[in-house]
Predict the structure.
Amino acid sequence: MNTTSSHFDFYESSNLFHGSMMHAMGTRLDVIIVGPDKNASLICWEKIEKEVLRLSKLFNKFDEKSELYAVNRKSAESPFRVSDELWRVLADCKQYHSMTSGYFDISMKDYSQVVLDGKKQTVYFNDKEIELDLGAYAKGYALEKIREILISKNVECALINFGNSSVLAIGSHPHGEYWPIGIEDPYNPQNTLGIIELKDNTMSTSGNMPSHTKHIVDPHTGISNESRKIVSVKTANAIDAEVLSTTLMIIPDELVSSVLSNFIVDEYLSFDLE
């Protein structure tokens, strides 16, 4: 089992702090903070580390001590009361399910069978085979929490990067007008498919890799999308970007325009690598 490890460096000449966590939410997290002194940056980093570890546990459906694990094990038996935070997340996912014509579905099957009782703050599964998975939501949520930490500490220049698949930019690159983020071709790592320019916004990239081709499922059919396709979305909100990049991997072409109209999208790129 992977364990999270981390390290950091501070470069006096450029006043740049770089922190890195391995195996954070299933990938590597890199945090670049520019401007504050070392102590101020370190305080931010320690808060970010603590928050990412907390969220990793909250959203880990495989951890027997996590709340999501309990939800998945008990909600098919009787209504299960959840914490305020997880309630907000599940209600948010319900809204995204509606906004994407049902293609964003954390139940991986039929989220309409997940009954949320707002008065009692309980969750109940009408279908006993349902299991909630927040993998397509969690990194976006984490980025928004990290943004709150950095803004509270008056950070004006930072880049938060979950393995190049989920990225948040605060301000612009210290030597440019934006942070350039390359979109890599997983079938040809030397090939860059495109560049996303970030400044006070976020991006999310979804797609298949040679060793990982069945992780995005169409909830309407139950069939995994195994096509050689990469989708990148740039939005102001990291959760929007995360939800849309997953949704756009599986949604029929004729529904793309109507779903995108429910969001404010800065840029949307799709690459067919067949």
